Amino acid sequence: MMIAPLMRGHCTVEVLVSAWALCAVLIAAAQKPSITVDEVGTLYINSTKKVVVNGINVEAAFAYLFEATTSMWSTPEQLVISSATNGAISVYAADLDGDGDLDVLSASVDSDKIAWYRNNGNSTFSAQIVISTAATGAHSVYAADLDGDGRIDVLSASANDGKIAWYRNEGNGTFSAQIIISGAAGSARSVYAVDLDGDGNLDVLSASHNTGMIAWYHNEGNGTFSAQIVISAAANSAHSVYAADLDGDGNVDVLSASQNDDKIAWYHNEGDGVFSPQIIISTAADYARSVYAADLDGDGDLDVLSASWNDDKIAWYRNEGDGIFSAQIIISTAADGACSVYAADLDGDGDVDVLSASYYDNKIAWYRNNGDGTFLTQLIISTAAGGARSVYAADLDGDGDLDVLSASQNSDKIAWYRNDGQWDWKARFNVH
Ligand SMILES: *[C@@H]1O[C@H](CO)[C@@H](O)[C@H](O)[C@H]1NC(C)=O
Ligand SMILES: *[C@@H]1O[C@H](CO)[C@@H](O)[C@H](O)[C@H]1NC(C)=O
Ligand SMILES: *[C@@H]1O[C@H](CO)[C@@H](O)[C@H](O)[C@H]1NC(C)=O
Ligand SMILES: *[C@@H]1O[C@H](CO)[C@@H](O)[C@H](O)[C@H]1NC(C)=O
Ligand SMILES: [Ca+2]
């Protein structure tokens, strides 16, 4: 604000010597606008501010057209990691062999299998490496260092044997046999790991479909777990569990999505892993299947996202502060059989975008955040994910942007979609 008048000739008068020095530096550093033609006849208009043609800001107009013309954005190729995942239902990524790149994990419901795929470091993956086939009706896979040895262990939830289990990483991605945390998780649909009582160890959370139960298992410190501690049994046919500090008090709260009561709800962590009764965020998520939390409007607190199957809906709930949530805000109803939602900055513009997987239209899609929690229309990543069940984002090729992963049940596929950075229109059209 102060600089423009200073540069217009007041540099040497009425100001301190230090300000004069700053002024001189700014003038020296400032690139001068120019219009030039080179030998081959290319005309360069180099502006240090705006280029205005008859009142139109040319760069702003280009940006608008690029955003609006989504056909300029090519759909990425589906890169299949494995077709050996009979009933692929869950996908996750973590560096399992400690070589610095992200490996991929899968759960397959029809083959009771938890498996991984080693990232070769050159955008290819190894053949499937089976961790266990003892997760009967496997529904969910996650990874976290449960025993604190610096290696990332693997977790599973399996529906047909009611098991929450883990597999100790013995180093370089070799795993122990299945270690059962609990066999009392009913029709277990979802597993997550987070430190709930603030003792520095990662505890485990589960969602149980048939009992409507959200529960946790206390990590005693070396991957030994307490018996099941029930948080709530009021999540009728619970399908998804997640955790995040929703009211900013430093304790990690718990979130659930449950099908039969169409409910997105949370449980306030009172400290030390003691939870409040269920607090309903919404019952407008018809056959709720998935819940996630991220700061979508950039106001510093975590908002909540849902995917619901019957109304094909991806929606969010604005955190008004202290864990008070707005009514449902719909992002899209074009996700036919919506069953998985995730959030990540896919276009690298600093805000968090939203991803969905939907079963009936075999679709992996995303919704570009304008930065304030308003979203552009659905952008399709793929419709080749037959019976899509799970979506996740991770930088698999190590180029600094986030790629997308899918698990599709009917096509038995774990696949990824490379982010080629095309969303940055200036970079895309820059001739230099
Ligand atoms: C104009 O900008 C381009 C880069 O965009 C640069 O290569 C060129 O040297 C600039 N020309 C002038 C005259 O500043
Ligand atoms: C990628 O790396 C793997 C393992 O080192 C190697 O077998 C494969 O040939 C490489 N592929 C490409 C395309 O470089
Ligand atoms: C890890 O295992 C892979 C595959 O068996 C092998 O190629 C690699 O050398 C191992 N690395 C270490 C550090 O043991
Ligand atoms: C793990 O910690 C628990 C609680 O401190 C203890 O009872 C158990 O013996 C330990 N197990 C191992 C394998 O160190
Ligand atoms: Ca470990």
Automatic annotation (TrEMBL):
Pfam families: FG-GAP_3. Keywords: Signal. Residues 1-30 form the signal peptide. One of its GO terms (molecular function) is calcium ion binding. It comes from the Eukaryota. InterPro entries: FG-GAP (IPR013517), Integrin_alpha_N (IPR028994). PANTHER family: PROPROTEIN CONVERTASE P. This is VCBS repeat-containing protein. The lineage of its organism: Eukaryota, Choanoflagellata, Craspedida, Salpingoecidae, Monosiga.
